[in-house]
Amino acid sequence: xxxxxxxxxxxxxxxxxxxxxxxxxxxxxxxxxxxxxxxxxxxxxxxxxxxxxxxxxxxxxxxxxxxxxxxxxxxxxxxxxxxxxxxxxxxxxxxxxxxxxxxxxxxxxxxxxxxxxxxxxxxxxxxxxxxxxxxxxxxxxxxxxxxxxxxxxxxxxxxxxxxxxxxxxxxxxxxxxxxxxxxxxxxxxxxxxxxxxxxxxxxxxxxxxxxxxxxxxxxxxxxxxxxxxxxxxxxxxxxxxxxxxxxxxxxxxxxxxxxxxxxxxxxxxxxxxxxxxxxxxxxxxxxxxxxxxxxxxxxxxxxxxxxxxxxxxxxxxxxxxxxxxxxxxxxxxxxxxxxxxxxxxxxxxxxxxxxxxxxxxxxxxxxxxxxxxxxxxxxxxxxxxxxxxxxxxxxxxxxxxxxxxxxxxxxxxxxxxxxxxxxxxxxxxxxxxxxxxxxxxxxxxxxxxxxxxxxxxxxxxxxxxxxxxxxxxx
Length: 474
Ligand code: 5AD
Ligand code: SF4
Known about the structure:
- The structure is a single chain.
- The chain is α/β, with parallel strands linked by helices.
- It is built from 15 helices and 19 strands.
- The protein has helices at residues 5-16, 30-42, 68-87, 98-103, 105-110, 126-134, 180-184, 192-204, 230-238, 258-266, 283-288, 295-308, 327-340, 367-391, 459-462; strands at 20-26, 47-49, 58-63, 92-97, 116-118, 139-141, 162-166, 168-169, 188-189, 209-213, 245-249, 273-275, 313-320, 344-349, 396-404, 411-416, 421-425, 434-442, 447-451.
- Strand 10 (209-213), helix 9 and strand 11 (245-249) form a beta-alpha-beta unit.
- The longest helix is centred in the last third of the chain and has 25 residues, at 367-391.
């Protein structure tokens, strides 16, 4: 075995004594999941990750501020950690991410048991902050830096099948309801060569599925001197050997160019799924949200996606009860949902966020009206999701097996290229493999299936990313 520099340094460290342990609790979106991974990587010289809170020498909370509820969860966890800190006074406690960015010093003042606060750009300075905290200094770092920070080289555990790759950060869109531009800062893209190299490393380690991440992922490349557009980046990644599935999130409808839409019909690894948040079906509300598209433009983009890739699954985000939303506006949202035929959707009650323009708008929608609209919307969305699952019954499709089913320890689970969860019976050595499954039962949040043993459809062929049988359609 070739000894890399990282291996040698690990060996030396191992001889010097056991490392300390870090427990990281992550709230929020995939960007936060990717950031938590980075934190673990950056701290790897001194700490190994643990999933047992009791043995943590360092406890980090990576927070989300997107809605008030998310922020409240963080505050409640932080409060409850006072007891743990009393039991283990040597344990360092840190809060990072969006709430930390937003609150800074105020968090330290509110929680005397807290040792460090680091913002969304502070994770790259985390090792030094932890060292200072270990010397007894309470530290805050919420500086927002310019440019995309240099990334540490990543390693994947053996058998890792999926990975998240951050390709841009921040957002310049300033949707009036959204706190992201304030807590994540301006938009910066990462150099394409670094991204392609990271994906190639992952594939060389046996990985199969890559999700490219950014708050506004399809505006990738804006402001970079190298002139690589997002569709061009997708083409370069798709061309790498061994990539079975490529996904990206989250896209803004305004930046969904014809070139990007066309990529869905062309690039073999690009999965037939797009998360395209619409937020509202009313032009008046879309305008008040500063979304930069009309209902008609959104539906035209959906129609074009379905034309180039008829089997594509669309998911979305919707906010109900934005200030000034009338019953008529809300009904337009219900109509748009039916017209677009979403396969999956996440829906939320509008929640005023600090610094955002919408927080100062008049005509707040009362909580009980928001709740009633959310229930109506979710009933419709659940119906559409179940119908979409029912349409798949009887089909044979490729599943990337990525875990043990939540419903039964006897079953495996994975996802279709179109992103639905499928549970089926099979031996655990299928974990991490692409297999063909006949879909037999539709449930509200998942499908059930049976592995197809037919030699022309089973694993060797399914494991071949170029196999035409991998897709449900499109
Ligand atoms: N209130 C409610 N939902 C929000 N989202 C973002 N900000 C708010 C807010 N202030 C939702 C949007 C976004 C998703 C990630 O969270 O739908 O797409
Ligand atoms: Fe928030 Fe809008 Fe940026 Fe998305 S595009 S992160 S909703 S400001």
